[in-house]
Design brief:
Helix content of chain A: 25-40%
Bound molecules: zinc ion
Strand order of the largest sheet of chain A: 3-2-4-5-6
Number of domains of chain A: 1
Number of strands of chain B: 19
Chains: A alpha/beta, B alpha/beta, C alpha/beta
Largest sheet of chain B: 9 strands, mixed
Helix content of chain B: 25-40%
Shape of chain B: globular
Distance between the termini of chain A: 9 Å
Order of helices and strands of chain A: EHEHEEHEEEHE
Structural class of chain A: alpha/beta
Largest sheet of chain A: 5 strands, parallel
CATH architecture of the largest domain in chain B: Alpha-Beta Barrel
Strand content of chain B: 15-25%
CATH architecture of chain A: 3-Layer(aba) Sandwich
Number of helices of chain A: 4
Radius of gyration of chain A: 16 Å
Radius of gyration of chain B: 20 Å
Oligomer: heterotrimer
CATH class of the largest domain in chain B: Alpha Beta
Structural class of chain B: alpha/beta
Distance between the termini of chain B: 18 Å
Number of domains of chain B: 2
Chain lengths: 183, 426, 312
Amino acid sequence: MDSSRTRIVLDDSDISRAIRRIAHEIVENAKGADELVLLGIPTRGVALAERIRSAISEIEGYSVPTGSLDITLYRDDLRLRPARALEPTSIPSEGIDDRIVILVDDVLFSGRTVRAALDALNDIGRPRAVRLAVLVDRGHRELPIRPDFVGKNLPTSVGEQVRVNLVESDGSDSVTIHEGDSA
Amino acid sequence: MPLVLRGARPYGEEAVDLVIADGLIVNIAPVGSADGDVIDCDGLIALPGFVDLHTHLREPGREDAETVESGSRAAALGGFTCVHAMANTSPVADTAGVVEQVWRLGERAGLVDVRPVGAVTIGLSGERMAEIGAMANSEAQVRVFSDDGKCVHDAALMRRALEYVKAFDGVVAQHAQEPRLTENAQMNEGILSGQLGLTGWPAVAEEAIIARDVLLAQHVDSRLHVCHVSTAGSVEVIRWAKGRGVNVTAEVCPHHLILTEDLVASYDPIYKVNPPLRTAADVEALREALADGTIDAIATDHAPHPHEDKDCEWGAAAFGMLGLETAFSIAVKTMIEPGLLDWRGLADRMSVAPARIGRVREQGHAIEVGSIANIALVDPTGTRVISSDRLASKSRNTPYASMELPGTVVHVLYGGNITVRDGALA
Amino acid sequence: MKHLLSAADLDRDQAIMILDTAAELASLTDRSVKKLPTLRGRTVVNLFFEDSTRTRISFEVAAKRLSADVINFAAKGSSVSKGESLKDTALTLEAMGADAVVIRHNLSGAPHRLATAGWIGGSVVNAGDGTHEHPTQALLDAFTMRKHLRNGSGDLDGVRVGIVGDVLHSRVARSNVLLLRTLGAHVTLVAPPTLLPLGVETWPCDVSYDIDSVLPRLDAIMMLRVQGERMHDAYFPSALEYSRLYGLDSARMARLPEHAVILHPGPMNRGMEISADVADSPRSLMVEQVANGVSVRMAVLYLLLGGMKEND
Ligand SMILES: [Zn+2]
C-alpha cells in the first residue's frame, strides 16, 4: 500500500475507546447483558466481538456468550468472485433463540454482508432481536440497513478504501483510509 | 510435343532437363537444351512417384469417409503415383468382383495406379481362405493379400496362405496383432496406459505374431510382408529374420516415425490409431531400421474417418489417421533432415521398395531414360502449415493440423501426364 | 480451477481447502440448516452414462443442499455406431445452461473430453470414468481418514494406507494413490500381480503381493470391490482363492493396529474382498463414508462454481 496516500483515522487508543463505548451502549440498550449473544462476522468481526465481550464483562461482570458467523455461503455475489475458503461458524451452546443477537463487523459499507448474515441467522434460529455493531460506518449503503452501535462514522468517497487493522490479525490496531481504487 | 521438366534435379543431384514423351522419360539433357512444353523445375528434386502399400480408400461401403476418387486426389497431391487399396471395405474385397470394381474405379479416377489388396480370408473373419487365385488372375492382378485391420492369427491358416500365394508370386501382408492380448486395447501398454486407465496394447502382441510369421515364412519358403511395424522389438525380430535369410519385408507408417504415446494423455481421439503410438525409444528404433533397410518401405496406413467417429470419447472413437497428403513431409522431417536417408534412400523407401514388394511393374522406376514417367517433383526447402480444411481427402482426421512441416510436392507426373501442377490438381 | 477431472489436478493446499470446506459444511448440515442458498439459480446436471445410484444420489443431495437446480440425465453408453453421443448430449446440456456437469462414464477420459472438446462452457466434475479416476471418492476417503486419524484437520502426513484388491480396473485406487500422496500419506497397494497395472512400480506408492505382511503397519485399509467375472478372464483362479489370499476377514482384522480403520468404496462383495463380520464391525466406516461423500461433493461444487482460488 502506498503510504503517502494513506492516512490513519483511528489509532489504537481511539479503537479501545470506541469498543468500550459500544459495550456500554449495548448493555444500556439491552438493559443488562444476560440475554445477549455476540456473533462476529469473520475475519475481523470475530476479534471485535471478543473485545466487546471482554469490555462488557468488565462492566457487568458477566461473560456474554460469543461466537462467529461465516456468511460466505449466503453471499449474493458468489458468481462475481473466486470462491473462498469458509471461515468457522461457531454458535454458542446457549443458541440464539429468544436472545438478543449483536452482529459485529469491522466496516459497514453496502450492507450486503449484513443482509447475508441475517439470512444465515434465519437458518440457525429465531432471535428476539438482532442488532448491529460496527467499528466504522463508511456510508454508501445499497440496502435499507443501519447500524445500532457505531465506533466512528467515516465519510468516504466510493473509491477510497477503508482498512481496519487489529492486533489479532494484523499485528497492531488502526483504521486507515487509502485513496484510489480499492484493492 | 514432348514435356520438358527444366532444371529438375534427379535425387537432388545435378540439374538436368527431363524430356517426357509417350509416357516415358525419353531423354535426359543439359539444362536449357531440350525443347518442348517446358515446366520450370528449377530447385525441385525429381523422385520416382511414390508407391503406398497401405491405403484405406473406404470404397465400397464408407463413401462418406473416402472414395477411390477422393483418395486418388489425396494420393496425387502427396506425390504418389500408386496406392494399394486395403481390403477391409464393405463388402470386403475378398472376391474377384470386388477387387475389379475397385481397380476400375481407380482407372476411372485416373490419378494414380489403384492396386487393390485382396483379403486373405472370407470377410476378414480369419476362418476360411478367400479366393486368392481368382483375385490374382482377375483384371486387378492382385499380388498383395491382407486381412489388414485384423490379424490372420490362426497359425495353420497363415501357413497355408503363405504357401498358396507362391503360385503367382504374391505376398501376405500381415497386420500383426495377437487378438487375445489386445482385447479392447486402446493405446500402447505401459506406464501411461496404467495412469490413463486405458486398456493396453502391448508391444509383445505385435512382436509375437511377427516372430511366428517369419518362422512360418522360412518354413514354407514364402514371402511375408509385415504391415505397420511399430515397436523396437519388432525391428529386432525382423532384423534377426533377415539375417537368417527369411524372405520378409516390412513397412513403417509416417506417424510411427514422429508421434509418441504421450499425445494420448489429451484423450483426443485424433491420436487413436492401430497399432498405437508408441514410445520415443520405439520411434528411434523405427527410424534407424528404415535407414538401414531392416524396414523396407514407408506406407501411410491412410485411414479416413468421418468427423463424428473422432469427435467423441476416446474409447468410442475409430482407429486411424490420414497419411497420404503428409507422408512425404514426415519422411523429410524424420529421415532426410536428421541425415538418416539421402534422396536416393528416400526414393527407395517410398517408391522402389514398395513397388517391388507389391510387384507393380510400372512403378518404382529409376529416373533414367526408358523409365515410365511416374515422377514426383518436390521442393526440399518448401514448408507448409497443415490445415485439416485444405486436404483433398473427404475426411479431416489428420494428427498434424496446425503443425509446420518441411518439404512440399510441387508437380506430379503419372504415366507421363501431369496430375499435380504447382501443388494443385492439374 | 474450473474442472475436477483427476485427483492430480489438486495440489496440497487445494486438497486441504476442499477438505476444510467439507468439514465446515458438514458441521452446518449437522445443525438444523439442511439447505444453504449458495448456489441458488445455478444448474447442476448429473450426466450418468453408467448406472450408479449411490454416486448420483450423493451428488444430487449435495447440489440440492446448496440450492442448485439439479437435472438428472441418464444416458445410454456411447459406441461408434449406436447410442447417445456424448457430444450431442453435451450440446443439449449447454443449451439448457448447465453451470456444472457431473459426469459418470464407462469410458476412461470421457470427462476430460467433455471438458476440453469445446462442446460446453460449464465446469466438469468427474464422478468416475472407466478405469481411470474417481476424484471425489478419493476426497471423501481422505476426509474420512483425516477425521479418524488426524482429528479432522490438516493433511495426512505419515498416515499409512493399504489399498487392497483390483487396482488394475479401479478408478478409486488411481485417484486415491494420487490424492493420498499429495496429502503426505504413505500408500501400499496390495493385489495379485494380475490385478496391478503395468508400470505400477513407477507410481508414488509401495506394492505388495502379501496382505498379511502389510496389515500390522496400517492406519487405514481400503478394500476394493473385486468383480466375480474377473476370474473368467483368468485374473485369478477362483473367488475362494482370492478371498483366502486377499480378503479381509476377522482374523486379518485382528492383526491390524487397534486404531486402524477400514474403508470400502462400495458396493461391497461380502464374502469376496471383505467378510460380513468385518463389514459390519464398528471399525468399518462405510456408512460414514456415504455421509462424508455428500459434504465433500458440496465442497467441490461450491468451490468449482464460485471459481476456485488460485494458489495465493
Ligand atoms: Zn493394419
